[in-house]
Amino acid sequence: MHDLAIRGGTAVLGGAVVRCDIGVTGGRIAALGERVDGATEIDAGGLLVLPGGVDTHCHIEEPFPEGGFQEETWESASRSAFAGGTTTVVAHTPQFKGGGLAEQHQAARARAARGMLDHGFHQIIADPSDAALAEIPALVADGVGSLKAFLTYDALHLDDEAFLRVLRAARRHGLMVHVHCENFAAINLATQDLLAAGCTAPKYHAASRPPVVEREATARAIALAELVGQPLHVFHVSCAEVAEEIARAQARGLPVKGETCPQYFTLTAGDMDRPGFEGAKFMCSPAPRTAADHEGVWAMLRRGVLDVVTSDHCGFSYEGGRGKAKNGRGASFDAIPNGIPGLAARLPLVFSEGVSKGRIDLPGFARLVAENPARIANLYPRKGVIAVGSDADLVLWDAEREVTITNALMQHAIDYTPYEGMAVTGWPALTIRRGEVVMRDGVVSATPGSGQWLPRAPRPV
Ligand code: URP
Ligand code: ZN
Ligand code: ZN
Ligand code: ZN
């Protein structure tokens, strides 16, 4: 007799889709089979049973250099994630220029411990001084498995020498490097030109950073990683033109992979051209491209050039004090925070645009939103798969349910969703984290503080 049995569902077990019961004991999957008994039983008849979503690119309750935090807390982000079928996240620990790592890491861990999500961190390196790099072994010992580098943004961008220092440090310690690829100088000059011409509206965000700006930085990041012999994971690839650089690297046998996000197959640069200040709601970097680019992104996902879909969830409200309008509703595009919320919408958007529209199959869906993110974060097979011995993180999924996305359904602390009004087919009915039901029919029931830190082992190259 197991603690819990999920009975009668159709489970996605790696590449197979089979009718099977699931027995859970001690928070782990203990049995997969024809007839499994449990002290508690959940009827999954008519539902799919999928591995809990793993979102390896989130920004949650991050501190700002000038003080204060993003308004999405670990508790509100946990609710949002569970509402959307995600049970594990990897978020970011900041480093401020001139500052160290360990103190920020411990503070970030303390904030995350107040939430309900199982979690890990990428350590952002904004200033790879000798002193900062000397702190990396202690972070590795505590279970940080990856570094994050930004090639743009005033406060974060690394020049080639600094990025090479990050790549070398990662190689020395067996860490993955995740990188935001856009050319900082090109964006700066284009922004100056646009502002001088009086082009300040949100829509000019896209004009300031066209695909070539992302493609150039991606090619450069890949070349520098090749030079150092360091594996690379390119974050939020926006279109096929950029993914092609990754495909070429892969064809040469380089360990380079890429992720994309739902905004790159649901939103367009045109969304930033809505009346008044509304366009700010869709402002993220890289910028959303064109409807034609959406198909290119799907083609790259089907080819496996891109193999992870994350949310890049970023907690900026539209009205809130720290949000999109923090510099007023007439703020020029370069004074509006970049980033959009998407934790809860991720699985429904990938399922609806992917599986319901026939672009990918069910095992492909589970790989994009759970298995491959768990693999890149070195959390597989504890996370990301329905297998005996894995954590019992499961989503019972209603593949037929038609839902119109509203902000209330997202259950986050942010006052809007860029996906408001979008119709999706497929929605999570129940979310289970380590054997505990944490969401049923939209009602989240987990206890704050119940999320676990996930130490990630290094992988020396
Ligand atoms: O616009 C975005 N993506 N903001 C969040 C930070 C980042 O670049 O990932
Ligand atoms: Zn980024
Ligand atoms: Zn589309
Ligand atoms: Zn991000």
TrEMBL record:
Stretches assigned to the Amidohydrolase-related domain: 48-438
One term under GO cellular component: cytosol
GO MF assignments: dihydropyrimidinase activity; metal ion binding
First-level EC class: hydrolase
Keyword presence, Methyltransferase: no
Alphabetized Gene3D superfamilies for the sequence: Metal-dependent hydrolases, Urease, subunit C, domain 1
Keywords: Hydrolase, Metal-binding
N6-carboxylysine found at: K148
Family of the protein in this entry: Belongs to the metallo-dependent hydrolases superfamily. Hydantoinase/dihydropyrimidinase family.
Protein name: Dihydropyrimidinase
Gene name tied to this protein: hydA
